[in-house]
Amino acid sequence: MQTENWIEIEHEFYLQTAKRLPVVLERGEGTIVWDSDGKQYLDFVGGIAVTSLGHANPVIVEALTRQAQKLITVSNLYYTVPQLKLAKLLCENSGMDKAFFCNSGAEAVEGLIKLARKWGKEKRDGAYEIIVAEDAFHGRTLATVAASANERYRAPFTPLPEGFVRVPYNDVEAIKAATTGKTVAVLLEPLQGEGGVNIPDDDYLPAVRRWCDEAGILLLLDEVQTGAGRTGKLFCFQHYGIEPDALAVAKALAGGVPIGAFLTKDSAALLGPGEHGTTFGGNALACEVGYSVLKYMIDNDLPAQVTKRGEHLERRLISLADRQPMVTEVRGKGLIWAIELDRPVSEAVVGRCLEEGLLINGVKPTALRFVPPFTVSEEELDRAVDIVERVLGEISEEK
Ligand SMILES: *Cc1c(COP(=O)(O)O)cnc(C)c1O
Q: Among 29, 80, 114, 349, whose CB has the most other CB atoms within 10 angstroms?
């Protein structure tokens, strides 16, 4: 069937919540995807920071097919090996004590919120308020939308669950000032993904950790986008010599197979029998893939490769900024980068890049985000930046 037909079918039968680009993607391999006409694209969106090992990676294909033939799911009424292998591997490599699996990032953060509420009831006189940041994104369930900053995601759905207090990001004094007897936790992304790839100062998270200890409240980290290797460490907090009390991880963890998890220290792990649960979470299929992906990352020191490729991408983006005055800032860590533009043209740039064979994300009207797979080659990074440079050159001449 023609591309146009599928687009019509989408308009007729799919809830119109996504602004899609006019292309039907059919197949992928490594950093490349092909559309239904056979046209090839470099994929620097990667399911939005999800496809950590690239498309059709044999590690994932093999784990999926092997486990699908054996057991896809039973129930958390029973023990299954893939879930427990992955829980052990995650805890041993994060410094956390306990894992809980779910199916998405929002669900993982939702778990952190419930963990904090229960902890507050038992340990802090019923305190329940969670301090969150401006420009934060934590998901699309009612509670995670309430924790997120974007008004457009919140306004249509009020009343939202209460108990979230918002402060500027990268400002520990604001957190101190907002802390009261009702505060139970601080919830932060160690770097903000959807908010525009915002990197805090090096001393921000350590200072927040010290404050949480002093105030007797929990530090919860949303590592849904940054976790599982994206920033050049298995978890972003590991750059800063601190540990959270609990964290959420999802996107890159199983390389594209849906999974989410929260990990917690025993001291915060007060959820007991029957107090939290899930049908699909922790299923054998997703966990076997998650285990295989994480084990591959650890055995092959993929975070080190992410750092190396990230440094190459950074150099290329900085030299692009030197030549193209439209680019006013380059920011990122590992393999999550953004360039800030001097005008709100990201949508046009994204459309033009698509024509040129590059999938890239306009994270803000004025910013482009680069989140390629960890397996990306230097040559692919060069090709992608060349395309962006060409497109920015054209657009700067037009306006
Ligand atoms: C993507 C994201 C989420 C939500 O994950 P879903 O799987 O879409 O529910 C939550 N927090 C952060 C930081 C994210 O980047």
A: 349
